[in-house]
Amino acid sequence: MNGVLYKDIGTGLLTSYKNQRRSLKAMELEFTENWDPTCDILQINTPWLYSLYIIKKAKKLNKKIIIWAHVTAEDAMQVFWFNKYFFGIIKKYLKYAYGQADMVYCPSEHTKKLVLAYGIPEKKLVVQSNGVDLSIYYKYEKKREEARKEYNLNSLTIGTVGLVIPRKGTEIFIELSKKHTEQSFIWFGKIYSKLMVKGLPKELPKNVQFTGFVKDILLAFNALDIFVFLSVEENQGMVILEAAALGLPILLRDLPAYKGWMIHNENCLIAKTDEEVEKYLDMLISDESLRKRLGEKAIELSKKEDIKVLNKKLRASYEKLLN
Known about the structure:
By secondary structure, this protein is α/β, with parallel strands linked by helices. The protein has twelve helices and ten strands.
């Protein structure tokens, strides 16, 4: 996870990997990030081709194998424009890779259903949230002041964090900025070449910024007043939990991955259509009390999803696998 593919990207795959390391340290479990034939469990964050080589070695030694199902064919095909041509291949590859595991961690019930449909036995599938590290994501007024000065944010600020790809909702984000000229819009995240994804318009509204990758993620979140995440396909959406940790009011699309933990008008607003996206954003902009209420409930959610809380379930699944 330290290779060139993960340089200056800020992807959820990398964040989940870091969370796994923190969890193992917190549970005082010995681990190494390199292959060790004396291990009890081989845990794979994302099954790349090299992972299959390591898995083969582990199987010969009768090691238990865990793979995280962070990637599905359904979300992968909407990352780069050419991925759609490889949907069948990606699906077959993931079916084979996940099938090598003794246990597959699925970040949501939605992911579990997708992986189950690939033909992976249900007994292997465990729903395990990626969680959020509350020691990293929190309100910090000094960071807010720095961010708003650096990016010249002088009004109510609507923003998001993530890769700048169509799947994440770039087009509607720009359209919203055109209709809300009195507010600031900012998107923190890597901008890919037009060779990889549909590029941004040559001319953007004056009130919208795309910053590219930022190293200081706490600064990015603290810059915002409203968090919008308008992705059309997710397996969990870790940035949602990160925004929740700061008590930001959250606006989402209605996706299967959010069922059961993101609840409309309780800890977020969930839009079923583009028209509802605009309607709910108007409500958040005009109603400070609504923003405050949703933000307080979002904090409650983040506390339940703190990796320190989830570690108990994680440890139990390790022990069950070994026994």
